[in-house]
Amino acid sequence: MKKPALLLLHGICNNANLFAAPYGLGHYLSEYFAIYPVSYPIEAHRNSPWDFDFHLQHDMPVIWRQICRETGEKPYVFGYSMGGMLAMAAQATGVIDAPGVITAASPFTFAMIPLYPPLMRTWVRISSLTGYRTVPIRVLGRVLVALMAATVPGGSAFDLNLFRHLIKTACVNVPVETFLQALTWAKYRKFSDRTGQIDYLNRFSEISTPVCLIYGSDDRVAPRETVEAGFHAVSSKVKAVVGIQGGTHMNMTAGGNARKIAAITDAWCNHEDETEDQFRHHAGLACQGIIFRNEARSR
Q1: Average pLDDT value for the chain
Q2: Within 10 Å of residue 151's Cβ, how many Cβ atoms?
Q3: N vs C: which end of the chain shows fewer Cβ within 10 Å?
Q4: Which residue segment(s) compose the domain that 173 sits in?
C-alpha cells in the first residue's frame, strides 16, 4: 500500500538533518509516510539575507511546487517549531494548499522566554558594531551547551545530549536578519512579519483544512497557550490540540515523544473518519490536553 506523502519543515537555525536524528521524528514518521524533509533556504537562495518572511515568500513556493511535482499529489505538511509556523502561515496565505497540517512545538503567540532574547539581542549588537552579518550558531550552540551542562538538573541529561547532537549535525549559521525577526516576535508578543505590522495569526481564519497542533506540557518556548492561539484562530471544522505529557521543546524531536508524535500524525492523516475514542486508541495517546472540535470525532 502506497504511503501518503509528508513534507517535513524544520525549525529556526536548523536544516533537514533535524529529521535524521537517531530514533527521531524522521525515523518514526517514515513508518507511516513517504517523508520529504527539506532544507531552507533552498540552494539558490543561500547567499540571501534570509528570515522567516523570506522563507515564506521565496523558499516555500519553490519547495511546494517541487514536492507536488515529485509526488504527483499535494502532500500533508508537518512542521516542527518554526517549521510549523511556516506551514500554517503558508497555508493561510495561499502559498501552499495541503490536505492537512500538523505542527509540533510551534508557538503562534509568544510568552516571555528568559534566555533566548538576551542572547539574540547580544549578537545583534555585536553585528552592528562589527558589520559581521552571519550568526555563528554552531559556536554559540556549543557555548550554550556548556552553560546548560553547568546549570540544568540531572534529569535533563537527555535534552542536553540531544541538543549537543543537533548542534553538530543539524544546525546552520544564519543571517542576523533571522534573529531580528525573532526579536520582533518577542518584542510585540505576536506572530508577525518583519515590520511587526502584518499579524500572520490574524490570517489563520483563511485556513479551513484539518489541523492538528501538538505541544509539550513542559515546553517553555511553545507552551500550551501559545499553541492554542492557533487552534482558536483557524476556521477549520476538523482541528485538534494535543498535549504530550513531559514534552519539552527539545525532547519531542527524538525518542519516545517523537514516536508518540508520529503515531498522532498517522492517526490524524490516515484515519480521518475515526471517532475520538478510536483516534486515541490508534495513536496510543499517553498524552494530556486533548481538545477536539470535530463533530465526526466527538460523536
Answers
A1: 84
A2: 8
A3: N
A4: 116-179
Q: How many domains, the chain?
A: 2
- From residue 45, alpha-carbon distances to 13, 40, 55, 173, 178 in Å are 15, 8, 9, 14, 14
State how far the Cα of 8 lies from the Cα of 263, in Å rounded to an integer.
Answer: 15
C-alpha cell at 185: 516576535
Of the candidates 93, 99, 103, the one whose C-alpha atom is nearest the C-alpha of residue 206 is 93
Q: Which residues pair with 36 in a beta bridge?
A: 7
DSSP per-residue string spanning 190-258: B-B-TTS-SBHHHHGGG--S-EEEEEETT-SSS-HHHHHHHHHH---SSEEEEEETT--TTGGGBTHHH
Phi and psi torsions of 91, nearest 5°? -65, -40
Most confident of 77-91, 154-168, 238-252, 255-269: 77-91
Helix (H) or strand (E) run with residue 66 in it: helix 60-71
| 98 and 24 part of one domain | yes
- pTM of the predicted structure, to 2 decimals: 0.85
DSSP assignment letter at 102: E
Residue 234: CATH number of its domain: 3.40.50.1820
Tell which residue, 180, 287, 186, has the closest CA to residue 240: 287
